[in-house]
Amino acid sequence: MRVDMHVHTWYSKDGTASPGAIVKEMALKGIDVIAVTDHDTSGGWEDFPRDKVIRGAEFSTDRGHVLGYFLNEHFIGRKGITFYEALDFIKDNDGILVIPHPFDYNRSFSGLNELVNEIDGIEVCNGLAKTDSSNEKAFDFAKSNKKMMTAGSDAHVLDQVGRAFLESSASSIDDFRRDLERGNVKVVCNRAPFLRIVEYSLLTKVQSITNAFGRPRRRY
Fold first, then answer.
1. Model-level pTM?
2. With CB atoms 3.0 to 4.6 Å apart as the test, which of 17, 149, 152, 180 could cross-link to 158 if both were Cys?
3. Domain span at residue 75?
4. How far apart are CA 15 and CA 210, in angstroms?
5. What digits encode the pLDDT tens for the residues 205-216?
6. Is residue 217 part of a domain?
7. Sign of the CA dihedral 41, 190, 4, 110?
8. What does the pLDDT look like over 149-188, one tens digit per residue?
9. d(C-alpha 74, C-alpha 42), whole Å
């Protein structure tokens, strides 16, 4: 099973791709499952087949971004929540808390060493990381602190889907979670070229301002 653990749809303010287009892109790329991790919203969960999606979100907290996985309850998202508010919500949902792109330029996480005992995992490969070294530092941190490792494309644009992912021998999402928690996963890490990152950044800014690529009414 190949799982891209960090994908945004057009339910994120800066996301440009519809869930239907993402499902087609997954088939083209050989990606079996994605984690839908829209910014501060769970609105896109129902737009995917249940066997294709891990229900997640990317919370904008006072310390930086936090990924929650395997969530059960919808939530009314808002920016500026505290790290501990996100932690409580994720744990109340029996979810997994992962810090994405913890060492990436202008997207780092504040106080990682201080909060290391509160987190479950580290995103050791982010497909939009500015440098290889930021992913390498994340890998070293996760390994030295015995944290689970995740990888994801951080796709906000369709052709970014599947650039980075995890592989496991699991045949279901429940089995995949067990593999993830036990470290029985393989990280497949590909980082977007710098010029593509610039291109993606421009497209997401346009979407944030104009909704040029469309966006349904927010559900949650």
1. 0.96
2. 17
3. 2-210
4. 12
5. 999 999 999 988
6. no
7. negative
8. 999 999 999 999 999 999 999 999 999 999 999 999 999 9
9. 6
